[in-house]
Design a protein that fits this description.
The protein is of the alpha/beta class. It has a domain of 231 residues: FAD/NAD(P)-binding domain (3-Layer(bba) Sandwich). It has eleven helices and 21 strands. The strands form four sheets. An eight-stranded mixed beta sheet has the order 7-6-15-16-17-14-18-21, sandwiched between helices. A six-stranded mixed beta sheet has the order 9-3-2-13-20-19. The radius of gyration is 21 Å and the shape is globular. The termini are far apart. 43% of the residues are buried.
């Protein structure tokens, strides 16, 4: 027998977008049910990167003391672009008067889950969405953790269920319905037990290839280097990994430690053809994905949520559909700006496998144009720190 739950908004996916949306709706007096196929432990223990724009941190502040972004996260007022061993700091505070916070996504999720459960949120783990009936009063067709049929009847459904979204097919007509680009390179990433090698992130491009020196905490570092997308993570010994990273970051002696995780992160860009159909809308990775170079992924999802929360408030409280009708176009403006910046940063810092000598020298010319120009540094700083929410 199928169990039916009724609510005003059904949210498929308990990632940052879905959880923050439920919080903003709750603030407006709108109840919701949030489901996710994963367990709480899986969500909170999957280590993922996290550079938070200032606007994202300010929105997370609204969940109160549960948000640890400012207290546990690390404020960064700049990044360094290392060009063939020469460092160039992009000063965010001086250039655009803003900052970013280094705070991993899984920590954001811990904060949001704790805050939502404390507020009495109907949050259900281990529930697998199988489809959405997009009628005037849409329904999410699902199975609970024991495999029993389960459905949520709502006034509106939001798909925040990631890049393998079930909701996307309802909105676009296909799970792959969108604009897509795949890049000819990837990042080989490591997590290691070591203190930070640098106070701020280093984006380094050298004749040996690209590398990124980042951090996760005072005792854990995250580093990447450009590789072939089909690279086997077991192909390198630990010593070879350190050698590969070190030669790509000339001028900084990396602090080494035990490598306890390694992975290959493919680069893809995607934007769904449609962001809304009737009473179903998409946010976050269900709507778009970006390469990690520009640190836009989670921030772009949060920007979607801010817009959609306001639109749903107008619809469900005042019966006003104008913000909802405008949501796809309004959200798309920021999405495509972020897509451009992510593509630009990726192209600027990486050497394509088929690059000619001309391509390599032209790219270095562009890098120097950016770091040696006040306007170039300002463009990078503004986009990296995030545009104002009304831009």
């Amino acid at each position: 027998m199928t169990t039916t739950v009724r609510t005003r908004v059904a949210i498929v996916g308990a990632g940052p977008a879905g959880l923050l949306l439920s919080h903003l709706l709750d603030q407006a007096g709108i109840d919701s049910v949030v489901i996710d196929r994963r367990s709480r432990d899986e969500i909170e223990s999957t280590i993922r990167a996290g550079i938070l724009e200032q606007g994202t941190v300010e929105l997370l502040d609204t969940i109160g003391e549960a948000s640890r972004a400012r207290t546990v996260g690390h404020r960064h007022d700049g990044i360094e672009l290392r060009v063939e061993g020469e460092g160039h700091r992009i000063d965010f505070a001086e250039t655009v008067g803003r900052a970013v916070w280094l705070y991993p996504q899984h920590e954001v999720l811990k904060d949001l889950i704790a805050a939502r459960l404390a507020a009495g949120q109907d949050l259900r783990f281990g529930v697998t969405a199988e489809g959405i009936d997009d009628a005037d009063r849409p329904r999410v067709i699902a199975r609970d953790a024991e495999g029993n049929p389960f459905e949520i009847e709502a006034e509106f459904v939001v798909g925040s269920d990631g890049s393998r979204s079930v909701a996307r097919a309802t909105v676009t007509g296909s799970s792959t319905g969108g604009y897509f680009r795949e890049y000819p390179f990837a990042w080989f990433g490591i997590l290691c037990e070591a203190p930070p090698s640098s106070a701020e992130l280093i984006y380094s491009t050298s004749p040996e290839g690209f590398a990124l020196v980042s951090q996760r905490s005072d005792t854990v570092q995250r580093m990447y280097f450009q590789c072939d997308p089909d690279t086997d993570t077991t192909a390198y010994s630990e010593e070879q990994l350190w050698d590969e990273l070190q030669k790509r970051v000339p001028g900084t002696t990396l602090k080494k430690g035990r490598i306890f995780q390694r992975d290959v992160l493919r680069f893809r860009s995607f934007v769904a053809h449609e962001l809304r159909r009737g009473r179903v809308a998409l946010v976050g990775d269900a709507a778009h994905t970006v390469p990690p170079t520009g640190a836009k992924g989670m921030n772009l999802a949060i920007a979607d949520v801010r817009l959609l929360a306001a639109a749903l408030g107008a619809l469900l409280i005042d019966g006003d559909e104008r913000l909802l009708d405008a949501y796809p176009e309004t959200a798309s403006r920021r999405i495509w700006k972020a897509q451009h910046f992510s593509w630009w940063m990726t192209s600027l810092l990486h050497v394509a496998p088929d690059a000619t000598d001309f391509d390599r020298r032209r790219r270095l010319g562009e890098l120097r144009t950016v770091v040696e120009s006040e306007h170039g540094r300002a463009f990078l700083a503004e986009a990296y720190c995030g545009w104002p929410f009304d831009a």
